[in-house]
């Protein structure tokens, strides 16, 4: 399986000629979902969910579908009839040849005064876990953990502890569009030395074979 980093929280996974895209949001490239055979969305925030990105992907491939939680499905089902599938915590499904498990229910706390929205994470082929905007720990081993390194709701100590708790073989940064180049070496050093797993950062467009 090949993982390609797109800008911010979006990634592409390719296997056996099929492509799965997760979270093509507003900060991601306009064509982030083009070429996808299946698209997964973790929650409704604009940096993870952008209807124009989804439309571009579905128009490019009339056979492509979207799997997402109810709050997003309700916003887009009418625009994409028959192509939006609603999922929630504990569900399993196959999309474009990828086996997917759904983990988690709520977005991380941004501030106690801000109501929490729903959020799900996706474990793909029992190997790659994208948590969306939460620090959800799947109830099974994870080979590759995608870590939301920089957000209004977290701090680096929480990310380090998250990597330690999940215990993946490797961790790649996502959710990093607002992280400045000045800060990146600090994050790389601290997560790499304290997380207890191989840590790497891909620039948008760069790929890694898993």
Characteristics of this structure?
single chain, 210 residues, alpha/beta, seven-stranded mixed sheet, 14 strands
Q: What is the chains' assembly state?
A: single chain
Sketch the major β-sheet.
7 strands, mixed
- Rg over alpha carbons: 16 Å
Q: Walk across the major sheet and give the strand order.
A: 6-5-4-3-2-1-14
Summarize the amount of helix as a percent range.
Answer: 10-25%
Number of DSSP helices? Answer: 4
Query: Low-confidence parts lasting 5 or more residues at pLDDT below 50?
Result: none
Based on DSSP secondary structure assignment, what is the total number of beta strands?
A: 14
Distance between the termini: 5 Å
What is the structural class? alpha/beta
What's the overall average pLDDT, rounded?
97
Q: Any idea what the shape is? A: globular
Q: What series of H and E elements makes up the topology?
A: EEEEHEHEEEEEEHEHEE
Approximately how much beta-strand content do the residues carry? 25-35%
């Amino acid at each position: 399986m090949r993982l390609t980093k797109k800008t911010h929280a979006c990634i592409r996974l390719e296997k056996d000629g099929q492509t799965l895209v997760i979270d093509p949001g507003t900060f991601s490239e306009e064509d982030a979902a083009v070429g996808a055979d299946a698209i997964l969305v973790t929650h409704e925030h604009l940096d993870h969910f952008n209807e124009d990105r989804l439309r571009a992907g579905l128009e490019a491939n009339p056979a492509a579908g979207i799997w997402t939680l109810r709050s997003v499905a309700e916003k887009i089902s009418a625009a994409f009839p028959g192509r939006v599938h609603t999922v929630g915590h504990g569900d399993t499904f196959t999309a474009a040849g990828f086996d997917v498990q759904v983990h988690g229910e709520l977005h991380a706390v941004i501030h106690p005064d801000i109501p929490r929205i729903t959020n799900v994470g996706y474990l793909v082929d029992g190997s790659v876990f994208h948590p969306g905007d939460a620090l959800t720990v799947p109830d099974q081993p994870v080979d590759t953990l995608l870590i939301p390194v920089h957000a209004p709701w977290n701090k680096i100590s929480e990310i380090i502890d998250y990597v330690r708790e999940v215990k993946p073989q490797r961790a790649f940064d996502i959710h990093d569009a607002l992280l400045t180049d000045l800060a990146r070496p600090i994050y790389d050093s601290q997560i790499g030395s304290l997380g207890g797993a191989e840590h790497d950062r891909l620039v948008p467009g760069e790929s890694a074979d898993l």
